[in-house]
Design goal:
6 helices, seven-stranded mixed beta sheet, single chain, four-stranded antiparallel beta sheet, 27% strand
Length: 229
């Protein structure tokens, strides 16, 4: 079973009398242990595709299946539940809760979408942070962490509820090459070790070789995928 199946997905907006096409009949399948890099210029539809895949936006047309769930016609309530249980997000801005320490930023995810007890959630958070090289930083607030450390906490948070699919938006945009490579190596290691699928939006061609496959998008249209370099 594929982790993600987009079939003939279209997303349009209306501006006055004009129709704006953000995604134009996109079809994409991501295997349950595959990492796909999605590349394209600004305004090409990358973030729209990511948002539809994660249930943050609903398609105008087409079907979206994640982990066997057809979410195309889910209600807002169903989509909220789906996002909590089946998808992990790593946003470009990281968006950690500033008044919670690193451990708490992971544990809070458990409160929204898991049946683990509080003690089990704490153990899982600590295990993830340890794997991410943050064992000594668990009690630090986001403002006390470096950019790379905050990015690693965000990766841990995305993996906290063992999602079917992880969606990552520009993970290296604010990082230099060395740190960017470290973050990408970490993403690959964490995702692959769990046989989890991931779609990574990036404009940074230096990072695409970490993916199994690269798919280009231009003006809302997906090109043919190719193996990563």
């Amino acid at each position: 079973m594929a982790a993600l199946e987009l079939t003939d997905v279209r997303k349009t907006y209306t501006s006055g009398d004009a129709e704006i096409v953000a995604l134009d009949h996109a079809t994409l399948e991501v295997a349950d242990d595959e990492i796909v890099a999605l590349v394209g210029p600004s305004g090409s539809g990358k973030t729209t595709l990511l948002s539809i895949s994660g249930g943050l936006l609903t398609p105008t047309e087409g079907t979206v299946v994640v982990g066997g769930q057809d979410i195309s016609s889910y209600s807002a309530k169903q989509l909220t539940q789906f996002r909590r249980e089946a998808v992990g997000f790593v946003f470009q801005a990281v968006n950690l809760v500033p008044f919670l320490d690193a451990r708490e930023n992971l544990v809070i995810v458990n409160d929204f979408g898991s049946s683990r007890s509080g003690s089990e959630a704490k153990k899982r958070a600590e295990k993830l942070l340890d794997e991410l090289g943050l064992a000594s930083r668990m009690d630090n607030l986001p403002g006390e962490l470096s950019g790379g450390e905050r990015q690693r906490v965000a990766i841990g948070r995305a993996l906290m509820n063992e999602p079917d699919l992880v969606l990552i938006d520009e993970p290296t945009s604010a990082l230099d090459t060395k740190l960017g490579e470290q973050v990408m190596e970490l993403i690959v290691s964490e995702v692959k070790s769990r046989s989890t699928a991931a779609v990574i939006v990036t404009h940074d061609q230096r990072m695409t070789h970490y993916a199994d496959r690269t798919v280009a998008i231009t003006d809302g249209r997906l090109g043919a995928g190719r193996p990563a370099d």
